[in-house]
Amino acid sequence: MEGARDAEREKFLAQAIDTMSALTRDLAAAGSYPFRERGLGRARMNLLYQLSRRGSLGVGALAALLDVTPGAVSQHVDHLRQAGLVTVDVDPLDARARIVALTDQARAEVDEFQRGWIDAIAPRFDALSIDDVLELRRLLSLVRPADRSRR
Description:
Low-confidence stretches: none
Radius of gyration: 19 Å
Order of helices and strands: HHEHHEEHH
Number of strands: 3
Shape: globular
Mean pLDDT: 87
Structural class: mainly alpha
Distance between the termini: 35 Å
C-alpha cells in the first residue's frame, strides 16, 4: 500500500511542478526583467534581487544568502555602485562593516517590474480565494531551497 501512495504522491508532485514550470515559462516569454539593458550576470542580478526583497544588507549577509565569499560580493557591489544601482554606507553598529542598498532609481525600476510581473501572472490565480492564496504561500514556504553544496 505504501508503494501505491508514493507513486500517487509523485504523480501529484509532477503535476504541481508542471504548473510551476508553466508559470516560469510565461514569465520568461515576457522577456522583461529589471536592468536588462545593463547586461548584468546572474550573480549581480541575484544580489539586486536579494536587496529588493530584504532591504539593506551587510556584505556578510549577502555572501551567506548568495553562497559566495564576501570578497566576491564586494566585487559585485563595486560594479553595481559604479553603475548607479546600489549605495554603500558604513554600518552604524560597526564602522568596519558596509551596508548595501538599492539606489532610489534601482528601487523604482524593480518596483515597476514587480508590478508588471504581478499584473501579468495574477489572472492565473483568479479562481483562488484569499484563504487559498494563504495556503499556497504556506505550502510553498515548506519547499526547501536547492542544496548548493551538491553542485
